[in-house]
Structure formats: C-alpha cells, structure tokens
Amino acid sequence: MNVDSFQSQVAIITGAGQGIGFEIARQLALKGASVLLNDIDETLTSSAVTKIKNQNGSCLGLPGDAGDVSFINKMVDQTINEFGKLDIAIANAGITLFADFFDYTPDSFHKVMQLNLAGSFFLAQSAGKRMKEQGAGGSILFMSSVVGHQAHKNLAAYAVTKAGLEMLAKNLVVELSPYNINVNAIAPGATLTERTLEDKEYTNTWSRITPLGKPATTNDIANAALFLVSPVSRHITGQSLIIDGGWTSVSPSPY
User: Which site from 98, 107, 108, 150 is most exposed, i.e. has the minimal number of CB atoms within 10 Å?
Assistant: First the structure.
C-alpha cells in the first residue's frame, strides 16, 4: 500500500462539509477509504456525502457538534458499527472568531477553545482508545495553522488553540507510540475555500504577499494530509507540517 491507496482503511474527518475538510474526505474516499464525514451543518453534510458517493466513494455522513464529547464518542461508535474498525482520525473542525484582544469576550474564547482544542483532544482520545483495542495501529491528524507560528492581528485566541494542537501532537507521541499510532499536525496558510473567497480581495492580497505567488488550494492541503495519514508515513510522528507557500518565512501582514 502507498500514499495513493487507502484500500480497506476507515477514516473519520470532522468539519468536512466544505473547504479543506471536504477535499481531504473526498480524496480519501476516492483512494479507497471508507469515510465518516462530519459537519455541524446538516445540509452541508448531506451535500458533501452525495458529491463523494456520486464519484463512487464510500462515505457516511453524521452531522453534529465536533466539540461535544458525547457526540464525538457517538461518531467513533457509529464509524465502527458501520465499517467494522477505525484506522484514521482527522480533527479538522474549527472556528475562527476575529476580535481585538481588548474586546474579546469570554463567550467567544470558550467557543473557540471548546471546538478547536477540546474537540480535537477528545476525538484523539476516543479514536486512540479504539485503535489501541484493535491492536493494528493507526493515524491521528490535527489541523493547526500558520498563526500557531506567527502573530496575526485579531486572532489571539485562535492562535492559542493552533499552537496548542501542535504541542498536543508532540505530547501524544509518548501516549500513542506504544500502540503503533502516529500523530501529527498540518498548518495551512492562506487557502482558497468557499469561506475565504467571500472576501473579493483575498486571492489578490495573498498572492501578493506569498513568496510562491499564490494562496494554497484545498488540494494542496489535502495532499499533505493524506501523506501524513498514509502507511508510508507511519515512522513520522509528533511533527507539524506548514503548507503556506513560504509565507511564514517572511510573514508580511495582509493588512
């Protein structure tokens, strides 16, 4: 088996109704994996699953809050009930709540922490328990960001979660390696998605300040994600891979 084949593998990916998460789920399914696709938006979940099935991918949708621990456990249980096992867990769900540091509210802070950090932590815990019981190893992937490495205005709370996820990946090496489970993170930079393209200046702005001359596509990010959860990467663990066209090397502000 290589990075181009996920035959007989089973994966969960959260926050995958559109954007980066959807493209990762789509590529996994088209390369042979059975995928449980989650998004909090029921319509997006249904639409994403239909698109993948129309391309002959094996995909099950489960809408719900990926920051809720009881729902996370339900998601893992349903994956195993449907597909018989779990090999890959990708904690992609997250929210970005922009605000000036001096005006940031406790409610916004707790929402960002609960989904981005707690949701990822407890998905790794629930999936890791099942992988440990199965005895065949597995892969866990967190979704970090370039703002976990470089300061970005109005994103203090979000940046805390992303830096925290990279440390979580590193720390879980101690907990998961004895069971042949590797755990890593990817840190995308500016990426063209349905959400970012709502800003009509996004492409031009990030093309101007990205050394490679353009923002990433969802395919660029998915390629890195699939590499890190594939069997060819099982000796890579505790690492964070930045995919940003060189932006963090120079870090010009978009403002």
Answer: 107
